[in-house]
Each structure stands twice: as C-alpha cells, then as structure tokens.
Amino acid sequence: MRETLVHKDHPVKFYSDVVKAKGTFLFLAGQVAQHPDGSWAQGFEAQTELALANLKRTLDLAGATINDVVKVTAFLSDTRYGDVFNEVYGRVFREDRPVRTRIQCGLLAPECLVEIDVIAVIGDA
Fold it and tell me: How far is CA 98 from CA 37, 38, 60, 68, in A?
C-alpha cells in the first residue's frame, strides 16, 4: 500500500511531501548512467535518462515498478543541472510522486554526472 500526501497550498513540486507505505521494502543501490559495456552516457540529460532506465530495470528485477518508489535521493555533480533533472525526472515520475531529496556532491567517477538512489515498497505485508 502506498499513499502520497502533499500540501495543497504549496506550488507544484516534483515530489510529494509525505509517502505512507506498508509492505516489503526494497533498497536499491544508486543507479548511474553506465551502459552494460561500462561506457558512460554523454551529457547530463542523457545520463539522467539512462540512470532512470537502469533504475526501472533494477526495480523490475525485484518485481517492482516506478510506481512502487517511495523515496528518491538524487546526487547531482552540479546544481546548474537542476532544471534539466526536473524535466527528465518529471517524464518518469508523473503523478503521486515519491518523496525526494536532491544533493550536489562529488560522484563515483569524473564521468558520472548523476546518481539516483531509491527505496520502494511492494505488497501488503
């Protein structure tokens, strides 16, 4: 079970204020924009798209979907990428968005511009 709650008097956001969830928790490793051959996607938008595609693929491995995600932590190499991140993120998380934190930091490798870490919940334990 998953229920999202948002303050109605706040402007539209790319995240929910609270997500209530009951079931089996899934904790995914951070997803980056590497192809199976180890190469990196080029450019921030392409990296965000690939990191989210890798996220979907990993959720599928556990029998979950993007709709089961309750918490997202996004690590960006530069805050200037924020608007592009929101645009790509909004194509994937359209409604009942999970809770989200966005952080600027150094990442895994110089080629890495974004990493996305999530917690998902499936079933009604």
Answer: 31, 29, 18, 9
Tens place of pLDDT for every residue, the chain, 125 residues? Answer: 777 766 777 666 676 667 777 889 999 999 999 999 999 999 999 999 999 999 999 999 999 999 999 999 999 999 999 999 999 999 999 988 999 999 999 887 999 999 999 999 998 64
Helix 44-61 to helix 82-92 angle (10° resolution) is: 30
Residues 2-122, CATH architecture: 2-Layer Sandwich (3.30)
Which residue blocks in 16-107 are alpha helix, DSSP H? 44-61, 82-92
